Amino acid sequence: MSAVAAIATPLSRRQRGRQSAAGALPTLAVGAGSLAVFLVLVLWFTSVGAGEALSTFGRGAFGGVDPISETLTRAVPLAIIGVGAGVALRAGVFNVGGESQMIAGAVAATLVARWFGGAPAVAVWLLAVLAAVVGGAAWAVVPAVLWVRRGVSEILSTLLINFVTTALLAWVLAKTVLHDPDPTVITPQGRQLPAHLDLPLLIHGSRLHIGFLVAVVAVFATAWTLRTATGFRIDLVGANPRLAAQAGVRPTRLRIEVLLISAAFAGLAGAVQLFGLSHRLTTGLTGGVGYTGLLVAVLGRSKPLVTAVAAVVFAALLTGGEALERAGVPRTLSAVVQMVLIIGVALASVTEARR
């Protein structure tokens, strides 16, 4: 029996269920508090009644097939990036570079579509996903090297590389073979991908595509992996690196690995967005999803299934917020509620850690 296995004490399903339920209580409490804050803001800053606001929000996010499908569509990249970021967080690694890694994955997928666009769609998708995963992970190599060799915080390096990557994307779309030669185009963008490479829709007339199934597989596969010895090693490094080293785990190496894994998830999200929604490279491809995905991971407390629920919650805040805006409620109130959620969960995590 390995040292890691000796340290790990297997838990029964009932014990795991109790721990999961206990861990979810702070999140539920924060969610209820955020809802109360939202109602107060609506009553204070608008002329819309609380009941009307809640009804409008609910209809905008979940009031029928179309709103539900739109909410789930927006939750797809959030869930994929959030699950990857959550894995890194469990090891004590903060990957703030989801934006740049998502762009890298989308660019890699675009190159595959350009070179092999005439091949069957399934073959192109598989190659593009592989390229996107590798591209996203490769984009985290520089922060990893700076972290190990120079002691530069991964938070700082992954954050700064986002701005560099955004500038590089603008240059690529304006000066390279990937740019759209249409003279009427004002904003730099890439060529339209072949129509047969668009991801099939799950619901006709909506934007919900099979990328949703990719997100579901990513969530459950990660949840299963974290219940194995690999998951225990990740948790052990995050909780006590010194003990992990004594158990035969190499903390630095494992942290680099989870950083690259997290970046690979972001690259995958870039490919899904490319083939599922944008159908071309644009400077607004990410739409801030890389940053929001990290917030989703925090809200989900780095647990894949809870993170998936948090992704739907954040997506609902977007779709419901748009419905409220049409009813006369400022969209900024939704952003305020998001921040309340994050701050509340962070405070709940700190309180729990001190017990």
Please characterize this protein's 3D structure.
By secondary structure, the protein is mainly α. The protein has 15 helices and no strands. It is globular, with a radius of gyration of 21 Å.
Protein traits:
355 residues, mainly alpha, 74% helix
Q: Which structural class best describes the helix and strand composition?
A: mainly alpha
Report the oligomer: single chain
**Helix proportion:** over 70%
Give the helices and strands as they follow along the chain: HHHHHHHHHHHHHHH
> Would you count the extended β strands for me?
0
Strand content: under 5%
Approximate shape = globular
Backbone CA Rg: 21 Å
Q: How many individual helices?
A: 15
Average pLDDT figure:
84
- CA distance, first residue to last residue: 32 Å
Parts with pLDDT < 50 across at least 5 consecutive residues: 5-23
Q: Largest sheet, if any?
A: none
Topology (SSEs and partners):
Blueprint (H helix, E strand, L loop, with lengths): L2 H5 L5 H33 L4 H13 L2 H26 L7 H18 L5 H18 L2 H10 L3 H22 L35 H15 L3 H11 L1 H6 L4 H28 L10 H11 L4 H23 L5 H23 L1
Helix pairs in contact: 2-15, 3-4, 3-14, 4-9, 4-10, 4-12, 4-13, 4-14, 5-6, 5-8, 5-12, 5-13, 6-12, 7-8, 9-14, 13-14, 13-15, 14-15
Question: What is this structure, in a nutshell?
Answer:
The protein is mainly alpha-helical and about 350 residues long. Helix content is about 75%, strand content about 0%. It has 15 helices and no strands.
